[in-house]
Amino acid sequence: MSAVQHVTVLGATGSIGLSTLDVIARHPERYQVFALTGFSRLAELQVLCVQHRPRYAVVPDDRSALDLQGRLRAAGLATEVLVGEEGLCAVAADAAVDYVMAAIVGAAGLKPTLAAVQAGKKVLLANKEALVMSGVLFMQAVKHSGAVLLPIDSEHNAIFQCLPGDYARGLQAIGVRRVLLTASGGPFRETPLAELERVTPEQACAHPNWSMGRKISVDSASMMNKGLEMIEACWLFDASPDQIEVVIHRQSVIHSLVDYVDGSVLAQLGNPDMRTPIAHALAWPERIDSGVSALDLFTVGRLDFERPDEQRFPCLRLAREAAQAGGSAPAMLNAANEVAVEAFLQRRIRFTDIARMIESVLNARPVRAVEALDAVFEADAQARELAAQWLAVR
Ligand SMILES: NC(=O)c1ccc[n+]([C@@H]2O[C@H](COP(=O)([O-])OP(=O)(O)OC[C@H]3O[C@@H](n4cnc5c(N)ncnc54)[C@H](OP(=O)(O)O)[C@@H]3O)[C@@H](O)[C@H]2O)c1
């Protein structure tokens, strides 16, 4: 790579955003930050702007923009502060941008991530919810614009690393029998089923291996994260849900595997640190230092595997059913899950209500075709309304 590459980090104040900036800061000769975006942690965004001196910062509203603009000017920075979804889409699609890290959490990331795709950028996809909601339209936009989609989820990044470069020919054509998606099983892998009713948001967010934002931590505890990842993998690798098998691997050292028809199984291993997939995607097809220490197999000692228990993790079944149903089902699943996780984090519902609420929302409306983005947002809005009703009457 010759010229310095300009990077927009959507969701810079989050866990993935900070890991991305850590990797970028190790390679100032390769990468320069073009734009940083935040939502509620605006003091942190200000600190990041001082450290990385982006051309743009994006905040959610005019008042925050005025405030941050004043502070940045006072600190002697020329950074221009933009506002809202329009600002997010502008910094994702700007002609000067080479890479976009899509690391906003949830449905809020869909429009800016799509803006990056439509502008033909190299898109580092952490925001799995965007792809889950709009799969077919998202992948059509990638094909149409020539954008390069690089998976950041450690599992999908691992699968990408285990596939040949021409995997777009189709899994069957390249001799893949199935994809094995690993999952840690989260903090409640062994909790007695009867106790799951009483687990707290703090317990759900205490992931045994990974340090992540609160929404994905709860998703990992319920295994909805693996369900969303299964749908994400179907779109990224043109697989059907039955070509993907979820394997509980409690050590989170193998990040996923690909099983070929000749009996070979390729895996990608590493310490559980998101800077590895981030550095891989940023430098691809080259390799750069990520700051992650070398894997010490003698310390790891052993690797265990188990089949997931769908009685313990009903969200996994709900996601598989939504993947099989297609159409509006994944967008509704995602939206109902976002409402349920937020309600659980606010202690309005129990952990076990998350799956109950999602199932009730999915059963309330027939699956519809989604031929345009409007239909995706309609399904999203309808699921949020049904979830709100569920919360109100329960
Ligand atoms: N963390 C991981 O290890 C990991 C691994 C694989 C995939 N992912 C995926 O990466 C994405 C980010 O996860 P995370 O763990 O980094 O989450 P996080 O720590 O909660 O960060 C989320 C980011 O999105 C911003 N944001 C939240 N709501 C927004 C809105 N309505 N509009 C604009 N920006 C908004 C947040 O801003 P403020 O902080 O300023 O509010 C923050 O910058 C998720 O889709 C997750 O599934 C994460």
From TrEMBL:
Keyword Ribonucleoprotein part of the UniProt annotation: no
Binding site for Mn(2+): 153, 155, 229
Molecular function terms from GO: 1-deoxy-D-xylulose-5-phosphate reductoisomerase activity; isomerase activity; manganese ion binding; NADPH binding
InterPro entries associated with the record: DXP_reductoisomerase, DXP_reductoisomerase_C, DXP_reductoisomerase_N, DXPR_C, DXPR_C_sf, NAD(P)-bd_dom_sf
Signal peptide (residue range): none
Residues involved in NADPH binding: 13-16, 127, 129, 213
Segments forming domain DXP reductoisomerase C-terminal: 269-385
Gene3D superfamilies reported in the protein's UniProt record: 1.10.1740.10, NAD(P)-binding Rossmann-like Domain
GO terms classed as biological process: isopentenyl diphosphate biosynthetic process, methylerythritol 4-phosphate pathway involved in terpenoid biosynthetic process
UniProt pathway annotation: Isoprenoid biosynthesis; isopentenyl diphosphate biosynthesis via DXP pathway; isopentenyl diphosphate from 1-deoxy-D-xylulose 5-phosphate: step 1/6
Residue ranges annotated for the 1-deoxy-D-xylulose 5-phosphate reductoisomerase N-terminal domain, each copy included: 7-135
EC number(s) reported in the record: 1.1.1.267
Every 1-deoxy-D-xylulose 5-phosphate reductoisomerase C-terminal domain range: 149-237
Record field: catalytic activity: 2-C-methyl-D-erythritol 4-phosphate + NADP(+) = 1-deoxy-D-xylulose 5-phosphate + NADPH + H(+)
Keywords linked to the UniProt accession: Isomerase, Isoprene biosynthesis, Magnesium, Manganese, Metal-binding, NADP, Oxidoreductase
Residues binding 1-deoxy-D-xylulose 5-phosphate: 128, 154-155, 184, 207, 220, 225-226, 229
Required cofactor(s): Co(2+); Mg(2+); Mn(2+)
Family: Belongs to the DXR family.
NCBIfam families linked: Dxr, PRK05447.1-1, PRK12464.1
Biological role stated in the UniProt entry: Catalyzes the NADPH-dependent rearrangement and reduction of 1-deoxy-D-xylulose-5-phosphate (DXP) to 2-C-methyl-D-erythritol 4-phosphate (MEP).
UniProt name for this protein: 1-deoxy-D-xylulose 5-phosphate reductoisomerase
Species per Swiss-Prot/TrEMBL record: Ectopseudomonas oleovorans (Pseudomonas oleovorans)
